[in-house]
Amino acid sequence: MLQFVHLASLEDLQTRKLLCVKTGSYRILIALAEGTVYAVDDMCTHEDASLSKGSLHADCVKCPLHGSRFRLSSGEALDEPAEEALNTYPVNIEGDDIMVGLPD
């Protein structure tokens, strides 16, 4: 079962389109791409690089370490050396609040 927790606000994404939020044992990347807010794991599946330090390319995030791209909607790894997908999390927007569904 998922519990939706407040991790950021839309205002937080006005200056930075990629934001790492730590909650419990999770490091979540909140991304604003093409008008949609996404939540995925922040760590690249190839090596432990923070994707929040990467860059946005349309609806993908590019790892700053080796350049692997991940589709934000599905977590799919699009480029080597990454092969494993990122975990994705559902997002609800409530007013200005970004609520992310995390497993209990």
Q: What would you note in describing this structure?
A:
With 104 residues, the protein is mainly beta. It has a single domain (2-103), classed as Rieske [2Fe-2S] iron-sulphur domain (Rieske Iron-sulfur Protein), CATH 2.102.10.10. 4% of the residues lie in helices and 48% in strands. It is built from 1 helix and 10 strands. A 4-stranded antiparallel sheet has the order 2-3-4-8, with no helix packed on it. The protein has a 3-stranded antiparallel sheet with strand order 1-10-9, with no helix packed on it. The protein is globular, with a radius of gyration of 13 Å. The model has no long low-confidence stretch (mean pLDDT 97).
Gist?
This protein is mostly beta strands and about 100 residues long. The chain has 1 helix and 10 strands, in the order βαβββββββββ.
Structural class: mainly beta
Number of helices: 1
Q: What Rg is obtained from the alpha carbons, in whole angstroms? A: 13 Å
What percent of residues are in strands? Answer: over 45%
Task: Tell me the strand order in the biggest sheet.
Answer: 2-3-4-8
CATH fold-level assignment: Rieske Iron-sulfur Protein
User: How are helices and strands ordered from N to C?
Assistant: EHEEEEEEEEE
Report how far the terminal alpha carbons are from each other. 6 Å
Identify the CATH architecture. 3-layer Sandwich
How many domain regions?
1
